[in-house]
Amino acid sequence: MVDRRFWIAEGRQFDFEEAFGRDGPWCTMLYGANGYSLTESWCESEKDRVYRVRDLWSWHREFEVFRSRFHAEVDRFE
Prior knowledge:
Structural class: alpha+beta
Strand order of the largest sheet: 1-3-2
């Protein structure tokens, strides 16, 4: 599992939700990766605009291989 928190700038919540939503570019990019299972994303604090994104992998090493191979694409989201 890869678990991250993001603090989103005011007025950008919709853009974030679109990017990390089930049909967004983040999940689309991951769908073909070996070992990828699912992405969960939710807002932890509307007041502070804190979002959590959790990617589930069959093995953490699979994520590391994916991240190494597609580091430029992954970096665009972080």
